[in-house]
Write a structure and sequence with these properties.
Layout (H helix, E strand, L loop, with lengths): L1 H7 L3 H8 L3 H12 L3 H12 L12 E2 L10 H19 L3 E6 L26 H16 L5 E5 L4 H10 L10 E5 L2 E3 L1 E2 L6 E3 L2 E2 L1 E3 L4 H9 L1 H7 L4 E6 L10 H9 L4 E7 L8 E6 L2 E5 L6 H4 L12 E3 L3 E4 H7 L10 E5 L3 E2 L5 E2 L6 E5 L12 E5 L2 H4 L12 H18 L15 E4 L7 H8 L12 E4 L1
This protein binds uridine 5'-triphosphate.
The site of uridine 5'-triphosphate (UTP) has 22 residues, from loops.
């Protein structure tokens, strides 16, 4: 049966490999093939591989409205205060769970292992996972409730991720407070529309993008688990951003008061071509237009006061209502568009030799979480701040790198020390003249910083020193 399907859809190479296999190897490849809907795949090959899809820019595209931060006037501040109280209540009631997407391959970082196991803090070299775990433990303590953590992995890094948590005793969170679930995969496809294999018994598979989160939540049972645990709101963030404000009462509270289905943080872009997706509206629905698809005329458009018209960039930080995900995935399917990425994908040839191409040779298809935005009737966008909320670790050095992330963590912690009255020595350019790191087990937000670090036992750092606060 599967042999006929492969031949019907012109996948003769895979058919011939399958024919030559027996036992476990055959079962493995058959299982991978059984998960593919070949009729759908052939449409994807036609639309996304054999031709390059063009993103249509709707004629009515307009900048998305957003809640400014800080509030623009007293009335708004009073509303924000109400929202903060609501958010604190949701946390204290255990109605919020954290969801980190950690299924990516982290190719740009060039690190051998799941990205969450990458050491990121400037002094103690805590890993990204440890940093989040410690933050969750502090938030849980603060609100008097064990808040649950859902971690999305992919088949490529699931085993290693689970082992890492076991080896580190779940960083003290308690195994019962952490749930792993695995996203789906997509096969890499050659420019000729053929499935690539990276071993005689395996297709070249890769994770299906962070948009895969929604269906994976449903299929893995994690969504049901959320319901069982009384979780109504999902605080969604990416594993490479240790500054993500995962338990911000204002953001959570606004989401709830506004009856939003999916809410987003935005960062004001510093220039028209910054590499962040643009929050826009069309037909009354929120959507993101990727920076690479934004026409120059729109990207550069300015308001009369000189600010960018399309100001809002996305750092991929969301609050999502559980019921929204349930509704979207109720049939066990989810229609979201795919995005094409041209990649260098190693593959085996007729003689089972692994070929490592020097140039992109294949298309990987991914779906993106932000394509859920236009599927929602009620959304909101809240302004955030780059220095407080966004330090993505994409590359080893340079822009959006481990290096810049460490620097930002140090600067944010230096500001928290200043807030607590522990004056941080600074260089002429204003950057800290010392290395500081505050443990998230002690301090998870600015309020904590003021309350906890003001204590006399914490000393201000000396110029040129390295100080760890816990
Ligand atoms: P990126 O788009 O930066 O991809 O993911 P990446 O795989 O981490 O890195 P590169 O592009 O290969 O260098 C943003 C976030 O989405 C998660 C990543 O783990 C990261 O937290 N992600 C991405 C998934 O969980 N699954 C995916 O299929 C893709």
């Amino acid at each position: 049966m599967i042999m006929e399907t492969l031949r019907k859809y012109g996948q003769d190479f895979v058919a011939s490999k399958l024919e030559s296999l027996s036992g476990e190897a055959r079962a493995k490849l058959e299982k991978q093939l059984s998960e593919i809907d070949f009729a759908e795949l052939s449409e994807l090959i036609r639309d996304y591989v054999l031709q390059k899809p063009v993103t249509e820019i709707p004629a009515d595209l307009a900048p998305a409205p957003f809640f400014p931060f800080p509030a623009k006037d007293e009335a708004q501040e009073a509303y924000y205060e109400k929202a903060r109280k609501e958010g604190e209540h949701l946390l204290a009631e255990g109605k919020v769970a954290f969801l980190v997407v950690a299924g990516g391959q982290g190719t740009r970082l060039g690190f051998d292992g799941p990205k969450g196991t990458y050491p990121i803090t400037p002094i103690k070299h805590k890993t990204l996972f440890q940093y989040f775990a410690e933050t969750i433990s502090r938030v849980s303590k603060k609100y008097g409730r064990n808040l649950h953590w859902f971690i999305m992995t992919s088949e490529l890094n699931d085993k290693r991720t689970r082992e890492f948590f076991c080896e580190n005793a779940y960083f003290g969170l308690g195994e019962e407070n952490v749930t792993f679930f695995t996203q789906g995969t997509m096969p890499a496809i050659s420019y000729e529309g053929k499935l690539l294999m990276n071993a005689p018994d395996s297709l070249a598979l890769s994770p299906n993008g962070h948009g895969g989160t929604l269906l994976a939540l449903k299929k893995s049972g994690a969504l049901d688990e959320m319901k069982r645990r009384g979780v109504d709101y999902i605080s969604y963030f990416q594993v490479d951003n240790p500054l993500a404000p995962m338990a911000d009462p204002l953001f959570l509270g606004l989401h709830s008061l506004e009856k939003s289905e999916i809410s987003s943080r935005m960062l004001p872009k510093t220039n028209p071509y910054e590499k962040l997706g643009n929050f826009c509206v069309s037909g009354g629905r929120l959507q993101i237009i990727e920076y690479s698809d934004m026409p120059a005329e729109l990207a550069e458009r300015r308001n009369p006061d000189g600010t960018l018209a399309f100001l809002s960039g996305s750092p991929a930080i969301h609050v999502i209502s559980r019921t929204f995900v349930e509704e979207l995935t109720k049939d066990g399917r989810l229609n979201m568009p795919w995005h094409r990425a041209d990649k260098k994908v190693p593959y085996i040839n007729e003689n089972n030799e692994l070929v490592k191409p020097e140039q992109p040779n294949a298309v990987k298809l991914e779906s993106f979480i932000f394509d859920a935005l236009p599927l929602a009737k009620h959304t909101l966008v809240l302004e955030g701040s780059r220095k407080d909320h966004f330090a993505p670790t994409k590359n080893a050095t340079g822009v959006d790198s481990a290096e810049s992330c460490r620097r930002m963590l140090c600067e944010r912690d230096a500001e928290r020390l200043d807030l607590a009255g522990k004056k941080v020595p600074r260089k002429a350019d204003g950057t800290p003249d010392c290395l500081v790191e505050i443990s998230p087990t002690a301090v998870c937000d600015n309020d904590d910083a003021v309350k906890i670090l003001s204590d006399a036992k914490y000393k201000a750092p000396e110029p040129g020193s390295e100080v760890y606060y816990e």
